[in-house]
């Protein structure tokens, strides 16, 4: 018997009401389903957080081990002088650059997904960290009055200043790592795609200018304070040139000799990179030779050449950062977290594309955060991937993260056994290493004619970033 149209309508309405009144899963049930942890899911999460578990069991020892050993030793030899040098940019004693070249590199072996990037100290990030450190612990806070008979003088308490700056760097690194971890857990690894190439290249070029100017006082051997904030470049140049007559000639000659030698070595490595089995380690040669010359000729005592000074043997015990500084550092930490990750993921994607493997952007962000956060308790400053060391690791045949692990062990050997050998290392040699390593960034000025022809907007974006400082003061961006 067929139903009338009104009966069919009532039937549909009745069925709809019944379905709507049927109880669905409760909120508690839905939450339990969401957080339920099966063995497969736990395994998937573990392998996602620790990528080393997915590739280490199937590591082809015969095919990869020799290449990784050669690459790791070569990278470690480069990492050692760069760690000492970039500590100057971070405004902490050089030995803390060695700590920052060991712990994060070791951790990245377990958490990173790129096989070729070299984690550790990097000039731009070190400079940004140093700007914050100097702002929070300026020299003016540590002048003390001393009385010698009837004479009273004011001297700088460098021990107290350095201890405070290390504390600032530690908490700053902790905050930066925590921000990167949170962003990684929230799957914010895509943020790097919103930073265009002209913007990043303009930013790094501007940072290179700041770095070079900050190293002039070490190259000349003059004593000036370190500036941060508004017009810091102008003030730094003014301070250096106002004391140009106080230039320490032995310091200048040694620094220029190191610069010329490093430039020649880098040019030879570039010209004959297809013929050389490994790049000539110019930086470690400079460190060894300049240390020997400084010690043999007593440059520190007889000619007043500034040297690295005491390098404690062994690793320091972990310590808690001073979190009372957090309100002053949080905005700077967020900026450094984004910039550091952007540089790292850019390098990782370049090598992944070249060698036909994939990197996980979210896991890389998490890896950067864990490297910074965990390492900060062991007296390190903020790190990211270094372009120059990554090129060394890749060009010397590195196949996996084992190369980075071996590079960290090279640094560890120096810290625990022979660190005292480098106490006579002149600071002008470290300044030469920093300045010559940044020559590649200055070549980015060649982008300007190309951008002028192709896109005026991207040229303006690059030039705007080049006119900005990499430090802040009073919470407002400063421009020069």
From TrEMBL:
The keyword Lipoprotein does not apply. Pfam families: Sulfate_transp. It is a multi-pass membrane protein. One of its GO terms (cellular component) is membrane. It is found in: Membrane. Keywords: Membrane, Transmembrane, Transmembrane helix. The chain crosses the membrane at residues 84-111, 117-134, 168-193, 199-220, 280-298, 333-353, 365-382, 402-422. The lineage of its organism: Eukaryota, Metazoa, Chordata, Craniata, Vertebrata. Residues 65-460 form the SLC26A/SulP transporter domain. GO terms for molecular function: secondary active sulfate transmembrane transporter activity. This is Solute carrier family 26 member 5. It comes from Neogobius melanostomus (round goby). The keyword Membrane applies.
């Amino acid at each position: 018997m067929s139903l009338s149209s009104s009966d069919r309508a009532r039937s549909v309405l009745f069925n709809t009401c019944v379905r709507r009144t049927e109880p669905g899963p409760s909120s508690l049930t839905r939450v339990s389903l969401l957080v339920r942890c099966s063995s497969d899911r736990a395994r998937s999460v573990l392998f996602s957080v620790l990528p080393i578990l997915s590739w280490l069991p199937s590591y082809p020892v015969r095919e990869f081990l020799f290449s990784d050993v050669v690459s790791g030793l070569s990278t470690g030899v480069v990492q050692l002088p760069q760690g000492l040098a970039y500590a100057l940019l971070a405004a902490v004693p050089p030995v803390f650059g060695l700590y920052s070249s060991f712990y994060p590199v070791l951790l990245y072996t377990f958490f990173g997904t790129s096989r070729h990037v070299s984690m550790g100290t990097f000039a731009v990030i070190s400079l940004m960290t140093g700007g914050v450190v100097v702002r929070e612990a300026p020299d003016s806070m540590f002048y003390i009055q001393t009385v010698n008979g009837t004479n009273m003088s004011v001297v700088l308490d460098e021990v107290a200043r350095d201890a405070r700056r290390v504390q600032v760097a530690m908490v700053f690194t902790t905050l930066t790592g925590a921000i990167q971890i949170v962003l990684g857990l929230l799957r914010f690894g895509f943020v790097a795609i919103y930073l265009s190439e002209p913007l990043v290249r303009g930013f790094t070029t501007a940072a290179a200018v700041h770095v070079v100017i900050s190293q002039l006082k070490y190259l000349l051997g003059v004593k000036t304070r370190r500036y941060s904030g508004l017009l810091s470049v102008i003030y730094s140049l003014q301070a250096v040139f106002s004391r140009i007559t106080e230039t320490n000639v032995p310091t200048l000659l040694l620094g220029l000799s190191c610069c010329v030698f490093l430039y020649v070595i880098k040019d030879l490595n570039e010209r004959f990179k297809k013929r050389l089995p490994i790049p000539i380690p110019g930086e470690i040669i400079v460190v060894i030779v300049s240390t020997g010359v400084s010690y043999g000729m007593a440059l520190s005592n007889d000619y007043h050449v500034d040297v690295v000074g005491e390098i404690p043997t062994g690793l320091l015990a972990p310590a808690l950062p001073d979190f009372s500084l957090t309100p002053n550092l949080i905005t700077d930490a967020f900026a450094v977290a984004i910039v550091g990750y952007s540089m790292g993921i850019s390098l990782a994607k370049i090598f992944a594309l070249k060698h036909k493997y994939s990197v996980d952007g979210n896991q890389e962000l998490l890896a950067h955060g864990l490297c910074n956060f965990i390492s900060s308790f062991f007296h390190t400053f903020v790190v990211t991937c270094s372009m120059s060391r990554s090129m060394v690791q890749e060009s010397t045949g590195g196949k996996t993260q084992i190369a980075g692990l071996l590079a960290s062990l090279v640094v560890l050997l120096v810290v625990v056994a022979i660190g005292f050998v480098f106490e006579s290392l002149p600071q002008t040699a470290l300044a030469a290493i920093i300045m010559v390593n940044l020559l590649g960034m200055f070549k980015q000025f060649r982008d300007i004619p190309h951008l002028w022809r192709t896109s005026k907007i991207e040229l303006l974006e690059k030039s705007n970033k080049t006119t900005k400082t990499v430090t802040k003061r009073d919470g407002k961006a400063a421009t020069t």
